[in-house]
Amino acid sequence: MYKLKEIADKVYYVGVNDRQKALFENMWPLPYGVSYNSYLIVDEKTVLVDTVDVCYSDIFLKKIEDALAGRTLDYLIVNHMEPDHSGSIRLLRQLYPDVQIIGNKRTFDMLEGFHGIHTGLLEVKEGDTLSIGHHQLSFYLAPMVHWPEVMVTYDATDKILFSADAFGTFGSLDGAVMDVDMNLDHYWDEMRRYYANIVGKYGNPVQKALQKLSGLEIKTLCSTHGPVWTKYIPDVIKIYDELSRYEGQDGVVIVYGSMYGNTEQMAETIAASLAEHGVKNIVMHNVSKSHASYILKDIFKYKAVIIGCPTYCNQLYPEIDSLLQKIEIREVKNRLFGYFGSFSWAGAAVKRLAAFGEKMNWEVVGTPVEQKQGLKQDKYEACWELGKAMAERI
Questions:
Q1: Range of the domain at 240
Q2: Is residue 372 part of a domain?
Q3: CB of 60 within 8 A of CB of 53?
Q4: pLDDT tens digits along 356-371
Q5: Which residues does 391 contact at the CB level (< 8 Å), separation at least 6?
Q6: How many structural domains does the chain have?
Q7: What is the CATH number of the domain that holds 216?
Q8: Average pLDDT of 38-42?
């Protein structure tokens, strides 16, 4: 029934697309959907690499059946136990009761916890190899990219890296599977948004994984989300390298909350000053309208952040407060920081933004601006100077 994409010699894409889920992890919007990628190697032994979300198990299992053409499944490699990739394991084991499940010790702890499976397991350690006929597989641990059990599988025969969630991106695969067969325009920003929201906290583990894998010749890069990469592998690795180093591009993200427009006018003034002083990459986010996932994507993308906040019940404006917690959780490093705020009768926001910048160890640029009630000429000029100082710093 299914005409499956052969991405290398007897290596088939058997993943599925999800265009129904509104929020990934019940938090992050999916305007372009998302794919759950799985791969089947048909050799002297048959090997499946990861499964898919259980919601799509019927389609997934039919694809495997068609690709196997009457053969049984010998091995399942579990690179990552997150349920969007391991959700179909129990059903797979029911269909193929003799399948050997390959993973590391932490994998098996989670396999027991999620599925109650504790038999038919083949434990692998760093650098272990498995010959399945023509294809020679090896295994490398990549803990905390972005779960502790994560590993990757390398096919030395066809130079394929099955990389779990590493190098993944939001966005379903709309017909094509390979990068060379599709328009990639929207995937690049979705890759940054995926990294910022899903992997963002784990820059150091990503760097360790990149260093570990740098000696491998990789002709095909198979993540569990997004396109199969061939031609654009250097671009994908560059994005993950830059983001995991927290190396922002030249540009400024202005994030603000505003109840009645006064804080927004301060943000507009700062943005106009940045532009006047030569900054071209300026992104503005009203936290009451922009979803946090897009704000975080831009904060990871650009090196300067300016945050504006009104005082609310002697605290930060709630949506700004929520965003700051998300930034703290991801431990974003090496940002230039400016801040401003407003109040009606008692100011607290600017003081709290100062404490946030100190906690993040960000470099404060310019003089913070605090405005009481409506925007006055002196505060307008102070906002202009804040924009100028940031422009000169970057």
A1: 5-244
A2: yes
A3: no
A4: 999 999 999 999 999 9
A5: 273, 274, 277, 278, 279
A6: 2
A7: 3.60.15.10
A8: 98
